[in-house]
Amino acid sequence: MSGTRTGRPAAVTGIGLVTPAGVGAQETWRRVCAGRPATAEDPELARAPVNLSCRVRGFDPRRHVGGTRPWQDDRFTQFALAAAREAVQDAALDPRGWDGARIAVVLGSAAGGIGTYETQHNKLMDTGHRAVSPLTLPAFLPNMAAGRLAIDLGVHGPVLHTATACASGATALATAAMLLDSDACDIAVAGGSDAMVTPLCATAFAAAGALSRHDGDPAGASRPFDAARDGFVLAEGAGVLVLERAADANARRAPVRALLAGHGSTADAHHAVAPRPDGRWLRAAAEQALARAGAAPADVDHVNAHGTGTQLNDGTEAAVLRELFGSGGPSVTSAKGVLGHTMGAAGAVEAALTALTVQRATVPPTANFHKPDPGTSDLDIVYGAARPQPVGLALSNSSGFGGHNVVLAFTPSNG
């Protein structure tokens, strides 16, 4: 690699996923690699302007969360609990035996328990204050998923919530890496979760012109980088990773999926919802991540793009990739063609997929990519089928309303 590393890499020793592609990391990975979109018509959005979504199918709180009253938690917390437990188990860790004071939880969410908020607000308006549940705030408050994870896992170290819109999960991972590097913890359970497939959210995004309206073709609605793209598909889910200092992971002979070798975070300071057209600060975030990894743009083999399927995002991101890497450059994929946009979970879900890409030397395809437009024609977008490819360095891009940009850099565990 080129350059001088400015931070210590964090080992990804565990991955847990709850997504529209499946409950569990393996189910999600298989469907994403198969390129089978999860978009479907959603009866619960029948009165919304757009009735398409990517929901997590087959998720049963009693089975996947357990306990005596899993319904007390909002769906976004339920997803986070299930994903975190899978990640901790995948890391070969037992919370009953760890020093909780040296464990951190960092969880991102764009909207917290918005489903609970909508339900209880409707009860208040329709029936009156006596109908409102006393559990409304513990279920709705955005920090409660992180708090519930701390209770569930016996964590007494830093327990933080990050909120940078659709970059929230990636911000959580960057924050966790900094906590590890500063010796504030020895293990970090970090990621993102959101359950924003609700009538209010669907209506609001549709009013903003952000959602795809391919109503006659649900499976083909989410089209990252395609010339016919017309918006994203609203989705839900969670992604949680276990991070440790690489030396600590090696000392306990932990299974290491990949190394989080660098991270960069910037703000556009341009517009509330639109990306800065020249992508200057997304590029700066990528350059920060590469500098921390001791790498240069020429070292990058793969980019897991934010790739929402909106005209503005994909056009801006494509321009940044061309500026960084030139024509062709590294392979590029977006998981949102399969998963839709999982909002605050997206950065963590896609970071997990990027780590698996590095570990398994396989790049999943971009579903529904058929024809590039002039702005995307010179990118090496993987489509049609998964591509076998050794990956020595991969970037995972995330952006969010408010102008947030986060880029994470991953390398193989032996790199």
TrEMBL record:
<dbReference type="InterPro" id="IPR000794">
    <property type="entry name" value="Beta-ketoacyl_synthase"/>
</dbReference>
<dbReference type="InterPro" id="IPR014030">
    <property type="entry name" value="Ketoacyl_synth_N"/>
</dbReference>
<dbReference type="Pfam" id="PF02801">
    <property type="entry name" value="Ketoacyl-synt_C"/>
</dbReference>
<keyword id="KW-0012">Acyltransferase</keyword>
<dbReference type="InterPro" id="IPR014031">
    <property type="entry name" value="Ketoacyl_synth_C"/>
</dbReference>
<comment type="similarity">
    <text>Belongs to the thiolase-like superfamily. Beta-ketoacyl-ACP synthases family.</text>
</comment>
<dbReference type="Pfam" id="PF00109">
    <property type="entry name" value="ketoacyl-synt"/>
</dbReference>
<keyword id="KW-0808">Transferase</keyword>
<dbReference type="InterPro" id="IPR016039">
    <property type="entry name" value="Thiolase-like"/>
</dbReference>
<dbReference type="InterPro" id="IPR020841">
    <property type="entry name" value="PKS_Beta-ketoAc_synthase_dom"/>
</dbReference>
<dbReference type="InterPro" id="IPR018201">
    <property type="entry name" value="Ketoacyl_synth_AS"/>
</dbReference>
<feature type="domain" description="Ketosynthase family 3 (KS3)">
    <location>
        <begin position="7"/>
        <end position="412"/>
    </location>
</feature>
<protein>
    <submittedName>
        <fullName>Beta-ketoacyl-[acyl-carrier-protein] synthase family protein</fullName>
    </submittedName>
</protein>
